[in-house]
Every structure is written in C-alpha cells, then in structure tokens.
C-alpha cells in the first residue's frame, strides 16, 4: 500500500495523488490519499476503501515513529534525481510517498479517465451549482473566471496578484474579439472584498454571477463552463481536466486573449512548477 501524503491546497492534492495513483496502477500497487481520507470530503474517492480517518492516523504516526518508510519527492531542484525514491516505492510493501515532484506525466494521461472518475463530485456538491445553471437561460458562451488572491499577494513576488480592474479589462478585451454578446460570466475566488459592482458595470450585456460556493462547489461550477480563465493555478487546471475545457492562464493582465490562446489540460499540467 502506498499512502500518499502532502500539504497544500485541494487541487494540488488532486494532481499529486493522480500521479501516484497512475504510477501505482502501472505497477500493480494500491494507493490511498491521506488528504482525502480526512479532508475535502466532497469526492467519490472519499467513499472508496481505506479512505477514512483511521487510515490517515495509521499512516501519519507509523511514518512519524519510523514504522513505515517514506519516499520523499519534495526536493525543489531542477536536476533532482528521484530514481532512488521510485525504487523505494517498488521495494517496500507499505510506504508513505510525499512531495510535489512525484510526476509521471505519461502515466497520468494513460489513467486520466480513472483519476477523473475518482474525483467526481458528490451529489451535495453539485446541487447548488446545478440550480444556478438551470435558473439561467442557455448562452452562447459560459465563461468561468477564477480569482486567486490571498497567498498570491506574496507567491512569486505577487506576480499573479491582479486587481479587479485588470480582470475586468482583460475580459472586456477578450469579449470584444468575439462574434457574440450572449455571454454568462461566473466569477469564483477567495477574496471577500471582490468588487461585484465593478464587474457588472464594466461588462454591460454580460450576465455576471458570483456563486460564492465552497471550494468543491466552485470547482464543479467552473468544470461546467465552456471556457476558463484565471491566474496560473492548479484550481483552474483541475477544473479544465474534467471535460477537457479550453483554459487561458493570465500571465499578462494587459494582454488581449483570443480563442487560439487557450490551452488544454494535457499540455498545461506539464507546466505547473
């Protein structure tokens, strides 16, 4: 059994576990996500065997007390060689695997549909977003925007910490390149001081919605849109994974994106640092 352990946020955990799940499937090894055994209890994986709090406690303290070996994939160096860590996974019957750099891109893609199935949303998560979507008329474009603030004020020196004005300006420029005005915009994020009035006044003719769901509800709603935008983040990346949605990562808030500038999960997930 490989017990997958990591810190970080929900979508980081989904991607990290996905890589180790794929490696385990390829080598005939069972995996358990310690994170989804006790936290983020919104997904199908949380109801599968061994995904419960006792598994989390067992693996945590067995590793702490030296009863379980640990394969550490957390060395943040470009030339890091994880061959020895992978060999430990092969050699040990039971082991804890941790670290953000456990990555096997080809295997992830090979087992991608199984990973997506494991992280399907519970009915309780889908309920409110589905009600919102059903309350709206059909639209030519449902655009999902994820606004990440909080820790992004400091991460990478604040490189991806954008203002409401920058977001609305970019969306104005993007929509100006389209041949339709029938657009619904769903704005999800973690900033309680988001200027909703600015969004509505800056985007006349656009139906602007602020769902204000929990992280899983926002992730599900974004996964139901037609296109996604946001600062580079695993949140929009995972949202795009479910239905292979076009995703535009905002590297330059002064850009004018076109449809050709949108990428897809199978390429973009290799760019996450």
Shape: elongated
Which structural class is indicated by helix and strand composition?
Answer: alpha/beta
Q: Whole-Å distance between the termini? A: 27 Å
Count every beta strand, where a strand is a DSSP E run of 2 or more residues. 9
Proportion of helical residues: 25-40%
Question: Short summary of the structure?
Answer:
The protein is an alpha/beta fold and 273 residues long.
Layout: helices, strands, pairs:
Layout: E1 2-5, H1 10-26, E2 31-33, H2 35-38, H3 53-64, E3 70-72, H4 83-91, E4 95-98, H5 105-110, H6 112-118, H7 123-135, E5 141-147, H8 164-176, E6 183-189, H9 196-202, E7 207-209, H10 215-223, E8 227-230, H11 234-241, E9 247-249, H12 265-268
Parallel strand pairs: 1-2, 1-4, 3-4, 5-6, 5-8, 6-7, 8-9
Q: Describe it for me?
A:
With 273 residues, the chain is α/β, with parallel strands linked by helices. It has twelve helices and nine strands. The protein has helices spanning 10-26, 35-38, 53-64, 83-91, 105-110, 112-118, 123-135, 164-176, 196-202, 215-223, 234-241, 265-268; strands at 2-5, 31-33, 70-72, 95-98, 141-147, 183-189, 207-209, 227-230, 247-249. The strands form two sheets. A five-stranded parallel beta sheet has the order 7-6-5-8-9, with helices on one face. A four-stranded parallel beta sheet has the order 2-1-4-3, sandwiched between helices. Strand 5 (141-147), helix 8 (164-176) and strand 6 (183-189) form a beta-alpha-beta unit. Helix 1 crosses helix 11, helix 7 (123-135) crosses helix 10 (215-223) and helix 10 crosses helix 11 (234-241). The longest helix has 17 residues, at 10-26. The protein is elongated.
